[in-house]
């Protein structure tokens, strides 16, 4: 199938926009690659320090040209998604030894959980933890003793941060080895019902706690299709996983076999062999377009609209909100996974998973097939799925039809004809809205505004009966420069109850919503943010706001709106405590949300927006 004309046009536009920065980036990577294996250029003292604790591997490292594999890990045992990574380094080292190579843990990176920090002060460090991870991974790899790299990370900011660091070391081959999702527990739909019942006062905290523990019950990623699992989809469709690796559960023979196979694959791609395949040749403009296509086809997390531009920028590529919007307009929604449906990612995987999805998108001409991947040239390799034949890992073609058409559909019969994301513009600025889970009757709302500066204030007003009417809830000063752009997912149960009671309700904010947010319309990432005197700072209680998700407009209808003085509240309480004082340099230098909100790539460094 010929490539869709819009996909081609967006790709060409990205290539043209990124021409100078991408060329400079590739020149740096080629120079680093041409210098050859890094250990050859280290002094004997340098090398002795690097190998001192390697035991039986020490002699091989010091006296042979065998490849040395660096491991960057986000392991901790507080996060269910990262707990499995505790067992990976010994397994990776043993797999490397069997192949005549060595492996070392280069370093660890922090991994925080938005599920723990939702509605808490720690959430104000969440977005910038991505950039901290990129910096930490770069420190780990700066020892310059590795011929290839394994990245171990799964969740919300961890994978984007690791990809950003990977771009900086793009002369090295790299592979991402996932941990996989936890087995299914209490269904996501039942969990949401319990949360709403608690928000409306129908059940007590003990009942809520019991439901939450039944939902989050074991090792692996949370099973809803939020940011963590959107990351895993991205790594597969962008060619950084082995085919079918994303959604295999932890501590299973197939998961272990895929880990071993990943080690073998990446060791075959070093500059010491004949198939040198550096990351910079995998993560190109086409790979990022493929990632956006996958995001739209699955109704993925809005957080990736922030992360993908930052990830791309690390490889010299510039993405804009218009790129996402144009791709969304031509990519059909082929998957319904909670919060866009009742299924979880285990059900998605069983219904055909990534192999079926990629095959359908290729058949529709919506993906670049001629890309490089860690599995070899061509994305068609990813239309297969792994299985064990005895103890041997092998691959077979993905099913030709989905096992459950309530979860996966062919491109000829999608859930909807366009993707789940819409760009918003108007006199309130530029933002995005995820509409894949929003019913058509809720996509247009015109209602009076109520302005709040905290989530707690919204919940308090709801409990006091002040929101028993059609309402646009406005939360300004939630952007990256104000307080680190926390997720506002704690508002979801309250707004869901309002909507269920028959009121029209929406959220407008320069902050974020969780990748698990669903049926209530939310205009998010609005830029310019209020902290820089953006339009949201001029909204007052009672202003009539019109949000039209399908037309892509966001307007304040007050006649004097443009002439008002912006509000400037005291934000000092958001800048200290729980380490927030240490992140002032991040807040001060963050790029706009439309550019990825990264302090590592401030606005002045970003290319033009054509």
UniProtKB/TrEMBL annotation:
<keyword id="KW-0311">Gluconate utilization</keyword>
<keyword id="KW-0479">Metal-binding</keyword>
<dbReference type="InterPro" id="IPR042096">
    <property type="entry name" value="Dihydro-acid_dehy_C"/>
</dbReference>
<dbReference type="GO" id="GO:0051539">
    <property type="term" value="F:4 iron, 4 sulfur cluster binding"/>
</dbReference>
<feature type="binding site">
    <location>
        <position position="222"/>
    </location>
    <ligand>
        <name>[4Fe-4S] cluster</name>
    </ligand>
</feature>
<dbReference type="GO" id="GO:0019521">
    <property type="term" value="P:D-gluconate metabolic process"/>
</dbReference>
<dbReference type="InterPro" id="IPR037237">
    <property type="entry name" value="IlvD/EDD_N"/>
</dbReference>
<dbReference type="GO" id="GO:0004456">
    <property type="term" value="F:phosphogluconate dehydratase activity"/>
</dbReference>
<feature type="domain" description="Dihydroxy-acid/6-phosphogluconate dehydratase N-terminal">
    <location>
        <begin position="67"/>
        <end position="380"/>
    </location>
</feature>
<dbReference type="InterPro" id="IPR056740">
    <property type="entry name" value="ILV_EDD_C"/>
</dbReference>
<keyword id="KW-0408">Iron</keyword>
<feature type="binding site">
    <location>
        <position position="155"/>
    </location>
    <ligand>
        <name>[4Fe-4S] cluster</name>
    </ligand>
</feature>
<dbReference type="Pfam" id="PF00920">
    <property type="entry name" value="ILVD_EDD_N"/>
</dbReference>
<dbReference type="GO" id="GO:0046872">
    <property type="term" value="F:metal ion binding"/>
</dbReference>
<dbReference type="GO" id="GO:0005829">
    <property type="term" value="C:cytosol"/>
</dbReference>
<dbReference type="GO" id="GO:0009255">
    <property type="term" value="P:Entner-Doudoroff pathway through 6-phosphogluconate"/>
</dbReference>
<feature type="domain" description="Dihydroxy-acid/6-phosphogluconate dehydratase C-terminal">
    <location>
        <begin position="407"/>
        <end position="597"/>
    </location>
</feature>
<keyword id="KW-0411">Iron-sulfur</keyword>
<keyword id="KW-0119">Carbohydrate metabolism</keyword>
<dbReference type="InterPro" id="IPR004786">
    <property type="entry name" value="6-phosphgluc_deHydtase"/>
</dbReference>
<comment type="similarity">
    <text>Belongs to the IlvD/Edd family.</text>
</comment>
<dbReference type="InterPro" id="IPR000581">
    <property type="entry name" value="ILV_EDD_N"/>
</dbReference>
<dbReference type="Pfam" id="PF24877">
    <property type="entry name" value="ILV_EDD_C"/>
</dbReference>
<keyword id="KW-0456">Lyase</keyword>
<protein>
    <recommendedName>
        <fullName>Phosphogluconate dehydratase</fullName>
        <ecNumber>4.2.1.12</ecNumber>
    </recommendedName>
</protein>
<comment type="function">
    <text>Catalyzes the dehydration of 6-phospho-D-gluconate to 2-dehydro-3-deoxy-6-phospho-D-gluconate.</text>
</comment>
<keyword id="KW-0004">4Fe-4S</keyword>
<comment type="pathway">
    <text>Carbohydrate metabolism; Entner-Doudoroff pathway.</text>
</comment>
<dbReference type="InterPro" id="IPR020558">
    <property type="entry name" value="DiOHA_6PGluconate_deHydtase_CS"/>
</dbReference>
């Amino acid at each position: 199938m010929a490539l869709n004309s819009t996909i081609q046009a967006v790709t060409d536009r990205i290539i043209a926009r990124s021409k100078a920065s991408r060329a400079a980036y590739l020149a740096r990577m080629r120079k680093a690659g041409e210098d050859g294996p890094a250990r050859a250029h280290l002094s004997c003292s340098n090398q002795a320090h690097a190998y001192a604790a390697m035991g039986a591997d020490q002699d091989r490292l010091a006296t042979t040209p065998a490849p040395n594999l660096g491991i960057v890990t986000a392991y901790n045992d507080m996060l269910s998604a990262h707990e499995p990574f505790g067992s990976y380094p010994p397994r990776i080292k043993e797999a490397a030894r069997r192949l005549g190579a060595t492996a070392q843990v280069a370093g660890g990176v922090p991994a925080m959980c938005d599920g723990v920090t939702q509605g808490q002060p720690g959430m104000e460090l969440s977005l910038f933890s991505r950039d901290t991870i990129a910096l930490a991974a770069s420190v780990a790899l700066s020892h310059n003793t590795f011929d290839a790299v394994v990245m171990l990370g799964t969740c919300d900011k961890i994978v984007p941060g690791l990809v950003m660091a990977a771009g900086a070391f793009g002369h090295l081959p790299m592979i991402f080895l996932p941990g996989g999702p936890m087995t299914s527990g209490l269904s996501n739909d039942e969990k949401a019902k319990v949360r709403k019942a608690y928000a409306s006062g129908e059940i007590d905290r003990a009942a809520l706690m019991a439901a939450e523990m039944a939902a989050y019950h074991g090792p692996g990623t949370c099973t809803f299709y939020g940011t963590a699992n959107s990351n895993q989809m991205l790594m597969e469709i962008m060619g950084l996983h082995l085919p079918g690796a994303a959604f295999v559960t932890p501590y299973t023979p197939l998961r272990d076999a895929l880990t071993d196979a990943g080690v073998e694959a990446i060791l075959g791609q070093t500059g010491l062999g004949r198939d040198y395949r550096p990351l910079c040749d995998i993560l190109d403009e086409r790979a990022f377009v493929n990632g956006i296509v996958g995001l739209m086809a699955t109704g993925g997390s809005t957080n990736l609209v922030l992360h993908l531009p930052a990830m791309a920028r690390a490889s010299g590529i510039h993405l804009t909100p218009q790129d996402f919007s144009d791709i969304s307009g031509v990519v059909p929604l082929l998957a319904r996974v909670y919060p866009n449906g009742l299924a979880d990612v285990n059900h998605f995987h069983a219904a055909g998973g990534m192999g079926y999805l990629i095959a359908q998108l290729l058949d529709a001409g919506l993906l670049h097939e001629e890309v490089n991947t860690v599995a070899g040239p061509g994305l068609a390799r990813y239309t297969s799925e792994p299985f064990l034949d005895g103890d041997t890992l092998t691959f077979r073609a993905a099913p030709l039809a989905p096992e459950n058409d309530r979860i996966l559909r062919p491109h000829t019969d999608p859930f909807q004809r366009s993707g789940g994301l819409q760009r918003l513009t108007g006199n309130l600025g530029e933002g995005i809205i995820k509409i894949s889970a929003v019913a058509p009757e809720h996509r247009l709302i015109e209602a009076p505004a109520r302005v709040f500066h905290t989530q707690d204030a919204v919940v308090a007003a709801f409990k006091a009966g002040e929101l028993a009417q059609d309402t646009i809830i406005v939360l300004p000063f939630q952007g990256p420069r104000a307080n680190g752009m926390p997720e506002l997912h704690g508002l979801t149960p309250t707004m869901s109850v309002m909507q269920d009671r028959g009121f029209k309700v929406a959220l407008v904010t320069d902050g974020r919503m969780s990748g698990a947010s669903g049926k209530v319309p939310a205009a998010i990432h609005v830029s310019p943010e209020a902290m820089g005197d953006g339009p949201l700072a001029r909204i007052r209680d009672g202003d009539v706001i019109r949000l039209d998700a399908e037309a892509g407009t966001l307007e304040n209808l007050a006649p004097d709106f443009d002439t008002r003085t912006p509000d400037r509240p005291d934000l000092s309480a958001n800048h200290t405590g729980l380490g927030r004082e240490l992140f002032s340099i991040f807040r001060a230098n963050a790029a706009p949300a439309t550019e990825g909100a990264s302090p590592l790539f401030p606005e002045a460094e970003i290319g033009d927006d054509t």
